[in-house]
Amino acid sequence: MHLLSYLIFIPIVAALVILAMPARLSNAFRAVSLTVNILQLLVLLAIVLNFKISAGYQLIEKTPWITMNLGAWGELRAEYFVALDGLSFPLVALSVFIMFIATVSSWTIEQNRKGYFVLLLTLNGAILGSFCALDFLLFYVFFEFMLLPMYFLIGIWGGPKREYASIKFFLYTLLGSIFILIVLVGLYLSTKTPGQADLVHTFNVLYMQDPANLISGSALALDSNSYLGPYSFRLWAFLLLFVGFIIKLPAVPFHTWLPDAHVEAPTPISVILAALLLKFGGYGLLRFAYPIFPDGAIYFSWLVGFIGLLSIIYGALNAMASKDLKRLIAYSSVSHMGFVLLGIASATVEGITGAVYQMFSHGIISAMLFLIAGVLYDRTHDRLIENYSGLATKMKGYTAFVLIAFFASMGLPGFAGFIGEVLVLFGAFQSKFINGLIPSWMALAATFGLLLGAGYYLWTIQRMFYGLFSVKNYLGNLADLDSREYSLLIPLALAALVFGILPQLLLNYINPFAAEFVIRWFAPETLIP
Amino acid sequence: MGLNNQLDSIYESLGYVWPELILTFSILVVLTTGLIFKEKSHVTFVLSGIALAVALIPVLITWPQQPVSLFSNMLRVDDFAAFFKVLFLIGGLLTLTITGKKKEAAEFHLLILAVVLGACLLVMSMNFVMVLLALELISLSSYLLVGFSFDRKSAEGSLKYFLFGTVATAVMIYGLSLLYGLAGTLDFSSSPFIDSLMRTQSPLLLVSCLLILAGFLFKMAAVPLHLWAPDVYEAAPTAVVAFLSVVPKLAGMAVLIKLVLSFYLFGQSVYLWPEMIAAVSIASILVGNLSALVQTNPKRMLAYSSVAQSGFMLVGLTTLQLEGIHFAIFYGAIFLLMNFLVFAVLTYYEKHGDINSVNSLSGLGRLSWFPAFSMLIGMVALTGLPPTAGFTAKLLIFSSLWSSYQETHSMILIALFLVGLLNTVVSLFFYLKIPYFLFIKEAPVGVTIKSSGFSNLLHLVLVIALIYLFLQPDLLMGWINRITFVL
Questions:
Q1: Where are the alpha helices (DSSP H) in A381-439?
Q2: Prediction ipTM score
Q3: Does the N-terminal or the C-terminal CB of chain A have fewer CB atoms within 10 Å?
């Protein structure tokens, strides 16, 4: 069937096709890109039909990739190993959907379309590849491969401070991935393929997750007694993976690249950044850091929870103080991704389910928020909140969608954001009684974040949309949404509603994964002393 | 041994050194044809190209080569030497292709051949006298090559290189004389040499070994003997820089590997060789990368980058194990490709104007995307990011370092591991500077750029090689894995 390979390689092949086309066919590039998105949606449909709702990996494709003799150190084996489970399935579906939205939203790009769409399609393939890969090396390659297209997309098509923002983004995320690489090198040399007579070092994540496959006596084995300063190597490895992924998430104090990158990036790229790239933080923790080093996760659970809480509160306070609409949305992302971290830290079924659900719902809602910010910026080239007032009187359709997006984002019941956040809070409250990983005051304090969220959104609505109509620094006629913008916002708004009213649609997939995850690595009876 | 026997042995040995004979012969031919066709530079260009290509044939057809000692233990042919010879010959060929028109072309081509010849002899040497002769052949020829722009600046660079180089050689000879006194023989592969080193307790042994290694660290441009690199790179013609940053560096590395293995005495040495190399490696990586950060001249920047890259090559050697050295050789081979790619694009841009500052490259990538794209791939490979073989090479040498750490639990190795990998982030900042100016800055009005089919083809070949070796590193590693070391 090779459904996942189609999903990953259709955009990459299309990027090569565009590269070979002459630059004057500038309208054709959009068409090719849109065709790719439609093909991907069809493949996604086939995947949905083939995906059975149960725990476990499906649609597995596995072929040897690199096999190399390391002499006395055995053999190195990396595979092209892709599959979906309850964690990656919602994120893959989200990616295909968001990439479609991003292409349509890129319709107005005028400057150097050829380069733009080549990079966009490469990014598309790399994102899907990273979500599907179950070989750590393959994941890492796709993961790194996202950085370059993103760097150029922000650096060439971005706003006035794009050069600073793009290099900051690149350096920050590269630092994160180097942390991951450090662990990767140590980890594969400590892992052997089970059932092989010879020593075969593997990058297979599923093998890495089973401590029985760690070579006894290696620095990262369970019985390892290698220490560096206060912590054992396993704890250090967890910390490195943790920091590597929360840079991407991003969590306070590693979040400072995000507002810059978001503010300077063109609208479609902001959408991809917020809706998809941030998800690799949570995904990486749930796929790699937690299952491979559960002992580290338990040891540092307080820290993880606290950083989550810090992000929730600090992000929300920053959002409240932001003068720029896009910056406000960027900080609200930091705040919402804090919930993901808190849910993961709780290591309860509710918390994990909530974290994955929150990633999905934030993907949809943040895409909507950035599109909304883009609509205004397209018209006036000004994003300062204080320069607007009474927009509701002139732009009725726009105001309606802003209200939907803001309410969805602040976690109003009935919207997708509510489900994720409430599940996370359930998990966080229960953690104390189930496994004792995070104290209940953190859960209590996190609820305060919801309140702050309502605060900055309502205040923004009041400042920008109510009152007498006035727009500073802009004299033209402020047009309401056009049909292309409606076609972007309606599907997103519908998705936010559908997944808020019928959460079972998604929970069916996520819940078996979360249950298995908790039973296998964080079973309560093994945790409570 | 009678004279007859000696003559017989020399005659037999000649059968093993075909590549060197071909190179020597072609140097003479190029010299004489250069005198005849003074104005026609392409004649000697073609001749030397053919010579390098033909010299590759005997190396490749005798692979795999059983180790054979030649000329009463002066030289030895083996797989290790053969692999490096292939790299040198390819390096020479690539240099010729990116050179373009030159004044005094015959001499230029002759000197390139002479450096390649010296490098080939150097990797085969088993005797310190031979090492010295081969090294001087490389050095003298490269001093001249640096001056080949025939202007004040390049004369200055040439002189600087000469002064630094002769001092390094003098220091090395001093070390050699000390070591000769201690060991009683100059054949560093022989058992009397090893035996006497094992018996020697004198701290003078360490001093003499370090003085000898200094000569090769100079050739590799590793810290603390890197000071010549930026000035020389800036002054020399770009094609020569490409050549000098690869061929003598790899030759220096090859001898360094042989000598350090010999000094290490299979782990019997009382001196901490792995730790010392690790210290040089850390220093090279740090100094190279941090100094490169502030450079605005692309060639100066690449000089510091080459200092850092030497540090990375030494990482494989710190393990002093077969596998680690294999990976160091792999890194060297990949370095040849990525460095030449970068310099090939630089010489291409040089044809359109000055490249004394990255500013002059502004926006060129927007005018013609392919050369700039090749530059990007080269820089990404030098940084060590996927999807290029530069990533694979870094992954492998750091894997060997980690394995070595697990065996020895030496703290400096873990420090090198962390410094090396974290420096990727630092290096990205300056490696990306050139692509940043090429793509993100706007080109000044009126700048045009001619697309050239031939150089595009060359770039394409190197780009494909770098990506292909990322996807299938076993292709090259399988070859390198067969290299064994016998002392």
A1: 391-394, 396-409, 416-434
A2: 0.91
A3: C
